[in-house]
Amino acid sequence: MQRVVQIAATAAALSVLMPAGVSAQSSDIVCQPLACEGSAPRKLTDADKPKFQDPFFRLVLSRRPSVRKLTEIETQILGAQGAKRRVFVVDEEIQSTKRPASRRSVVDFVGRNNGIALGSKLFLSFFFSSDAVPDSPDVEVLAWDDVNGTYNYYKLREIELPKDSPSAPTVRDRVWVAEATSRNIDAITPSQRSGTCLACHANGVPVMKELLFPWNNWHGQPSPIAYLSETGAPDQRWPVRSDSHFQDLTQAQDFERSVQIAINLAIQQRFEQQVVKQADVKLTVANARLTLRPLFETTEINLISAGAGQFSRMHPLTGTPMDGPSAPIQIPNSFFLQSKVLAACGIDAEDFKTLARIKPADYKALIENSGVKITTQALGTVAGDTNFAWFTPEQAFVDTAWITKLVNENVVTKAFAAAAAAADLETPILSAERAKLLQFVPASFIVTPGEAHPDALTRAVIAAIDAAAPPAGSVAAQFRDTLKAPDPVEVVRDRVKAYKERIAGLLGDAAPAAARTAEQQRLYNLLLDRRRAFASHPLFGNLVESGALLPLP
């Protein structure tokens, strides 16, 4: 995000090549293949329009497809019924006051217009400069379509129009482009996603990379951006702050909730498509490997930092002395294991952060000794850490919310979900070994509500693993053995408890100094490895928009 919400795929300009004979004009809407079936971009037709029933299409494009000015776009959305706009600001260099510079604004809306609900269903995104909000910026739009159960993606871009003849001069115009939809998102290949919004929106839903408190790269508590208000030092205040948009400047904690609601809309729709209730109240899961995939594979990533007020005081863009944190750093729970999934299974995995505390001097030494750097427009390549300490990839909300939904709706038992989370327990994301377990899930299964452990799904998976005869000690064998236990939840609870005790013994106050130093270094090396894996991932790496995001050696 930070230059995206991820409403955008990349910052690259859109260049649309349309088939010969198609004439695009300012009132035309161009439709890309991921939005309208086909092999090439084409003009949106009346036959396509029923597929686009989201608030943006209904309130703006269907009425005024030639609208280009930001204020006019927003006026069309807001109407005259008291709907409100909320403006959020994000950037990977947001702590820098240096100008000239640019930031990304994300806008959502609260209320209704003409009976159409706007809250958590419509998001705009555009760049502004330190001096002004453009009159007609490139705009990216993400909107939820209640009728079709999809997220639709639109862009306002300048594109090259097709020539009527080879000798005709080149003409460029600004047009609205229907960029993509989340329809059939699971069947879209990485190559098809490349260069589109779906290169970043892995699940087709809104992405706020740093979804949860605190936020390194958003205007929000506990790190508001003073240069966009009257509270900053006079010589650091940006002229753009007087633009009417910033009367509605809102903090990241409100956007967090808006994005969670938006994701849950898609989760509910997906659940209804993938899990069918029969007349006898049994549940049929026709595509089990698709439905259970987030139990075993990382389908998306969020980023999280250490807790409230845990500033690293090693961030070079803040302009403050880099003298290290003022309090012990608590490593997030999700760094150690799938804490949210285990909590949904009734297993307490939320107190690792109280055990894994790194003393301020030790944290400062880790940063300085590792030689981590960020590359910025404001200062070039400079040594230092993120604003909040221990900035790490974690299991995404879209995955944890989906798994929690499966457990709460009794599609999978707590025993099964806990056993999956405990497979390769200490590798909560991007576990190749856990991902291999998906092959043992049957093609389909039927859930009998209230069936005792081991239920039909568990029995089928045990049989499949037995047939494969994995070696003793392997993740597959461990997963099977956990499922065979009379109470897998208790087995996993004991493993989590032993894991906590090991961490406490290595990082607690009573731990030998040498052991503590070694464990802190091991964990920090693991943090760097996960940052590298995230940045180099063929899909998730698209979320890294600049060298300012992830400090690395």
Could you explain the architecture of this structure?
This protein has 553 residues and is of the alpha+beta class. 31% of the residues lie in helices and 17% in strands. It has an 8-stranded mixed β-sheet with strand order 2-1-10-9-8-7-4-3, with helices on both faces. It has a 3-stranded antiparallel β-sheet with strand order 11-12-19. A two-stranded antiparallel sheet has the order 5-6. Helix 4 crosses helix 11 and helix 14 packs antiparallel against helix 15. The two termini are 22 Å apart. The N terminus is likely disordered.
Helix tally? 17
> Could you list the spans in which at least 5 consecutive residues all have pLDDT below 50?
1-25
Structural class determined from secondary elements: alpha+beta
Helix content: 25-40%
Mean pLDDT: 93
Instruction: Tell me the radius of gyration.
Output: 25 Å
Give, in spatial order, the strands making up the sheet with the most strands: 2-1-10-9-8-7-4-3
Topology, number of strands: 19
Shape: globular
In angstroms, what separates the terminal alpha carbons?
A: 22 Å
**Main beta sheet strand tally, sense and closure:** 8 strands, mixed
Tell me what portion of residues adopts beta-strand conformation: 15-25%
